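2024-03-11 09:14:02 INFO worker-7 job=invfold-0412 stage=load source=structure_tokens
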């Protein structure tokens, strides 16, 4: 039979959890590579609407009208990025980056973005691509992108 735990054990566990979360957040921000946390739920909702409308090939659908790829990209919500990302893209802060995201994701990137979206459309929980981004000053960045869907999404 389980014994009730003293309140101090519970409080100690909560303190350890808070400390672990602070450590994880600090590791995210100090990572030497660009890290992004993004919300694709609106893209997922659009995919569901397209499926209900009878669309079966996302690749063909996006290639037929490139503006659809831009719509998908515009639906991705950037939740947070780390310090390396801000430095790499020459942004003062997250708001500065988000407010100018159309300068980062443009031109060549949209062609590569189709493949990332297709991987998600097909139920993949990870995607990898070589793509192009741009700094806020317009400098081209050739990047290798790896994305993972968080469990439960």
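2024-03-11 09:14:09 INFO worker-7 stage=emit residues=153
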């Amino acid at each position: 039979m389980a014994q009730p735990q003293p309140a101090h054990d519970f409080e100690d566990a909560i303190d350890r959890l808070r400390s672990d979360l602070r450590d994880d957040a600090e590791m995210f921000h100090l990572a030497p590579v660009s890290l992004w946390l993004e919300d694709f739920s609106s893209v997922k909702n659009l995919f569901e609407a397209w499926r209900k409308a009878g669309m079966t090939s996302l690749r063909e659908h996006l290639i037929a009208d490139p503006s659809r790829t831009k719509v998908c990209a515009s639906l991705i919500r950037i939740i947070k990025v780390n310090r390396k990302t801000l430095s790499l893209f020459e942004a003062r802060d997250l708001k500065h980056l988000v407010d100018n995201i159309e300068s980062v994701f443009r031109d060549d990137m949209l062609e590569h973005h189709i493949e990332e979206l297709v991987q998600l459309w097909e139920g993949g929980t990870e995607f990898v691509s070589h793509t192009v981004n741009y700094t806020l000053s317009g400098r081209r960045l050739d990047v290798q992108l790896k994305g993972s869907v968080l469990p439960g999404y």
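2024-03-11 09:14:09 INFO worker-7 stage=report msg="The CA atoms of residues 63 and 118 lie 11 Å apart."
2024-03-11 09:14:10 INFO worker-7 job finished
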